[in-house]
Design goal:
19% strand, single chain, alpha+beta, 30% helix, elongated, five-stranded mixed beta sheet, 2 domains, 4 helices, 135 residues
Length: 135
């Protein structure tokens, strides 16, 4: 088989509703593709067929945490971001949730463990943060 990408089949109604919500919130095309685990071209074709548009990142997203080493991540390692979301990080994207920000606002020195999600089937490696408990 010439194309080794896993096919996802048809878009579900739920996927379409989610796509409309992401378009309304001005989520960039590249981020939407990662969320749906589909290619940018696939998402672009679907949005065109639905008559909606997504903003496109003109430049590569600035990477946060360029100085971060290891798997323990502090707020300073992610450039003290102020909003939850997905941010370019190392060789992929890190998901920072509101709960992480709430903890960092109470304790700026709190650390989380960086967890790499497997398998990576999309164009980006995806990371999440898990609470690193002391002791």
């Amino acid at each position: 088989m010439a194309n080794s990408l896993k096919t996802h089949g048809r878009w579900t109604f739920k996927d379409e509703r989610h796509l409309i919500a992401l378009a309304a919130s001005q989520t960039p095309l590249e981020v939407v593709a990662v969320k749906f685990n589909r290619s940018v071209d696939s998402v672009r074709r679907k949005t065109a067929a639905m008559g909606i548009s997504l903003p496109v990142l003109d430049e590569p997203r600035p990477k946060i945490g360029l100085e971060a080493k290891g798997s323990k991540i502090a707020w300073i390692d992610v450039d003290q971001v102020r909003e939850s979301g997905e941010y370019a990080f190392r060789d992929g994207v890190v998901r920072i949730k509101r709960q992480h920000l709430n903890i960092w606002k109470k304790d700026p020195n709190a650390t989380f463990t960086l967890v790499r999600l497997l398998p990576t089937t999309g164009p980006y490696q995806i990371y999440e943060l898990k609470r690193a408990w002391p002791g």
